[in-house]
Structures are given as structure tokens and as C-alpha cells.
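[job 4471] stage=fold_predict status=RUNNING
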Amino acid sequence: MYKHKFLEEPFHIQLFIFSEKVTKDELNQFRNDLETLLNSHIDFYLVFDLTKLNNFDINLFTAMNKYIYQNEELVKLYMKASSIVIRKTMKPIINLAMNFNKPLVPNLVVSKIEKSIEFLINVNQQILIK
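[job 4471] inference complete, writing C-alpha cells
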């Protein structure tokens, strides 16, 4: 299952929530949502919430990453930071996968959504100071 939510406060945060088992149609919906977001030409912060996936599927993560890298120029321009929220047991796998594809923007892998939002707030504050 896939859901896209938007948090306006404290700033423009997009939540991409994946749960249970993600279908190809839902992955395509994610791509469409991200494409729409990138083409809106608005700065944003992104949270990938993978905590409720039945089983972590490296193919899903690879497909998401591939699409992000296909849009590298727009991602670097508009996505200010991102965070991946995942169960603690899956964190080493994500970190290993990210060694092969370095994040294009500041990124943090965490196990709690609160830590994710806190990280994005800190990045936002650093950007505002510059």
C-alpha cells in the first residue's frame, strides 16, 4: 500500500508512506506524485516511511532510488533534505544500499518519525541561516 501526505507545518514536508506490500501500480503512483512535486518547482523536504512494510523489498527501494536519480537535477534543486524511516532491524540493509547510491541531498535513516522530522527541521534551520 502507498499513501502520499503533505505537512504544511513547520514547513513543506512530503510524506511518502509505504505499508504492507507495495504493488507496481502503487510504485507508479509514487513516481507520478514525485514527478508532480518536482515539476511544481517548490522547495520541499521528504520523508519515506517504510516502517509498516510487511517485508522490506530491496527491489522497491532500488526502484525508488532509480527514479530519484533519473531526476537528479530537479531533486538537487528542489528537494532540500530527506529521511528514511524504517524498522531498526532493516537499518543496516538501507545503509548498505545507500553506500551504492549516495543521497543527492542531506539524508538520515532513522527508526522513529519524530527523529526524521527533527532532522528535517535542523536542515531547514541551517538553510535559513545561510
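[job 4471] summary: Residues 2-129 form a domain with the Transcription Regulator spoIIAA fold (CATH 3.30.750.24).
[job 4471] exit 0
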